[in-house]
Write a structure and sequence with these properties.
4-stranded mixed beta sheet, alpha+beta, 34% strand, 2 helices
C-alpha cells in the first residue's frame, strides 16, 4: 500500500469516528449567549463554545452543544 493512500485511509478512519468520539466526551463548561468567530474558511459566527480540560470541544449554536452537557457541566451565560 502506497504511503499517500495509507494516509488517506487513516484520515478517513479518524474522521468517521470523530463525531462518535466527540459525543462520548462531556464538556466541563459551555459558554453561550455570545458571538464567537471561528477560524474556518468562512470565519463563521456561533453563539456557544463547549470546553473540556481547557480545550475547545466544539464551537456551535446551543442546540448542537447541548448533547455535550453532562450533570457536572457548568453553563456560563455571557449575554
Amino acid at each position: 500500500m502506497k504511503a499517500p493512500f495509507r494516509s488517506f485511509v487513516a484520515l478517513a478512519t479518524f474522521l468517521a469516528g470523530a463525531p462518535v468520539a466527540l459525543l462520548a466526551q462531556t464538556a466541563d463548561t459551555i459558554y453561550h449567549n455570545a458571538r464567537f468567530v471561528t477560524v474556518d474558511a468562512a470565519f463563521s459566527l456561533v453563539n456557544g463554545l463547549a470546553v473540556k480540560d481547557g480545550r475547545i470541544l466544539a464551537a456551535a449554536d446551543m442546540a448542537a452543544l447541548k448533547p455535550l452537557a453532562g450533570p457536572q457541566t457548568q453553563f456560563v451565560d455571557l449575554g
